[in-house]
């Protein structure tokens, strides 16, 4: 089971993805997602130039040892580039081990803790009416949980309102798009949006909302309190989490559940938030938080403090990452919900997969390993196409969190 080959595949079937493929002497191969939106080639280089040479000859079954070797052995620890690379290696090794045992990955993680994985979709609109119509479409498709975002008068290029409906992609070709931001109209608008949504759909569907790190702690507390009558499933990323103690302010003022963590890289980024029970959902990902192995450690800490998982699952993560998240979701006891943004048809063809959606939930399928592969010949037809996430500015021109 020694690794004899490793390669990095960068392709762009609608958007850019970085995929690691490892091959063993037994002829088995495993894949892992290493996509870092807007900085893809940095991870590709880290893998090709620094990591793959260290993997050749290593036993693919020694997953934990390899994880520690890559994390501690580099000396310079953490960070999105390093952890995305480690996450890709970790996922690829789990994929290989599942295939070697002819079993879906979740069986290697202790088996299923539930029958399926509750997911939420994204209802976006250029107006309140558009968002309501979008939410109705998701209800018709069988979703039981919906994240609602809408444009706000006076706010240019509001977060969550993008091209298309199912395939929201914020990254732009060329230089980053510069968006506008004004807190006051946003804080006035959002409660009205959710009042309307509850009138339209009642309380039989879960509703979520993403602030995207844009508020101060006290502003986030005000928003959470104003949304309490509409019983949100969660309020996501209400304030930047570099200062974790800021979440104490939010917690002291509102009982609206808080979710955070899609930009976290290790357990240390969320340790205080979890141990002091300042959040309700941890959103770390298979890709950016060091793979399935490290995600399980985060979930174990979270379970002690009644914090549930809610992994990031946007389209800037490939179907390889989605498959890994679903195996993780199915296995851990303290699962909460899974974000599910549908990929384009081109992406699904490049990454054929066993996972499926039905009745508002998903299942990773019973194929061995992750249950997803990459069609390298087809991927080669979609070369890398540079794109950047937007940059945000307040109305006075100050750079702000996007």
Overall CATH architecture of the largest domain: Alpha-Beta Barrel
Helix content: 25-40%
Number of helices, counting only DSSP H or I runs of 4 residues or more: 13
CATH class of the largest domain: Alpha Beta
What's the number of extended β-strand segments? Answer: 18
Biggest sheet overview: 10 strands, mixed
Overall pLDDT level: 96
> Which residues form runs of ≥5 with pLDDT under 50?
none
Number of domains: 2
Ends apart, CA distance between termini? 44 Å
CATH fold type of the largest domain: TIM Barrel
Task: Give the assembly state of these chains.
Answer: single chain
Q: Which percent band covers the strand fraction?
A: 15-25%
CATH superfamily of the largest domain: Enolase-like C-terminal domain
Shape summary: globular
Keywords:
alpha/beta; Enolase-like, domain 1; TIM Barrel; 2 domains; 10-stranded mixed beta sheet; 3-stranded antiparallel beta sheet; 18 strands; 36% helix; globular
Describe this protein's structure:
With 402 residues, the chain is α/β, with parallel strands linked by helices. The chain folds into 2 domains: 3-104, Enolase-like, domain 1; 108-367, TIM Barrel (Alpha-Beta Barrel), CATH 3.20.20.120. Helix content is 36%, strand content 18%. The protein has 13 helices and 18 strands. The protein has helices at 40-55, 63-73, 80-100, 105-108, 128-140, 183-201, 217-226, 246-253, 271-275, 291-304, 319-331, 345-350, 376-379, and strands at 3-11, 17-24, 29-33, 117-125, 145-150, 172-173, 178-181, 206-210, 234-236, 258-260, 281-282, 308-309, 338-339, 356-358, 361-363, 387-388, 391-394, 399-400. Strand 11 (281-282), helix 10 and strand 12 (308-309) form a beta-alpha-beta unit. The model has no long low-confidence stretch (mean pLDDT 96).
């Amino acid at each position: 089971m020694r690794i004899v080959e490793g390669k990095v595949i960068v392709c762009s079937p609608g958007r850019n993805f970085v995929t690691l493929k490892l091959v063993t002497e037994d002829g088995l191969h495993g894949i892992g997602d290493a996509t870092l939106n807007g900085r893809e080639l940095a991870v590709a280089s880290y893998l090709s130039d620094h990591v793959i040479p260290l993997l050749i000859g290593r036993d693919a079954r020694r997953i934990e040892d390899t994880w520690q070797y890559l994390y501690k052995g580099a000396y310079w620890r953490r960070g999105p580039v390093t952890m995305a690379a480690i996450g890709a290696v970790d996922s690829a090794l789990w994929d290989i081990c599942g295939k070697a045992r002819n079993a879906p990955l979740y069986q290697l993680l202790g088996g299923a803790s539930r029958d399926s994985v509750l997911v939420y979709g994204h209802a976006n609109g250029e107006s309140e009416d558009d968002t309501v119509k979008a939410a109705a479409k998701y209800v018709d498709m069988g979703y039981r949980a919906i994240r609602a975002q809408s444009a706000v008068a006076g706010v240019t290029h509001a977060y969550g309102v993008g091209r298309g409906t199912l395939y929201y992609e914020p990254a732009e070709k060329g230089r980053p798009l510069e968006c506008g931001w004004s807190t006051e109209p946003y804080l006035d608008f959002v409660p009205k949006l959710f009042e309307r949504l509850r009138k339209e759909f009642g309380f039989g569907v879960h509703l979520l909302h993403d602030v995207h790190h844009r508020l101060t702690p006290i502003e986030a507390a005000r928003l959470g309190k104003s949304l309490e009558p509409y019983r949100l499933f969660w309020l996501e990323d209400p304030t930047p989490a570099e200062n974790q103690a800021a979440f104490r302010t939010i917690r002291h003022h509102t009982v609206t559940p808080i979710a955070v963590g899609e930009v976290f890289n290790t357990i240390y980024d969320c340790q205080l938030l979890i141990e002091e029970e300042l959040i309700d959902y941890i959103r770390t990902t298979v890709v950016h938080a060091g793979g399935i192995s490290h995600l399980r450690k985060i979930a174990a800490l979270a379970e002690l403090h009644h914090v549930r998982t809610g992994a990031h699952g946007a389209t800037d993560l490939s179907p390889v990452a989605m498959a890994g998240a679903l195996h993780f979701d199915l296995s851990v006891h303290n699962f909460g919900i899974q974000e599910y943004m549908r990929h384009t048809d081109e992406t699904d063809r490049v990454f054929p997969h066993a996972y499926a959606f039905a009745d508002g939930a998903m299942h990773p399928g019973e194929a061995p390993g992750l249950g997803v592969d990459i069609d390298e010949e087809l991927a080669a037809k979609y070369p890398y196409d540079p794109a950047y996430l937007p940059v945000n500015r307040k109305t006075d021109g100050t750079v702000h969190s996007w």
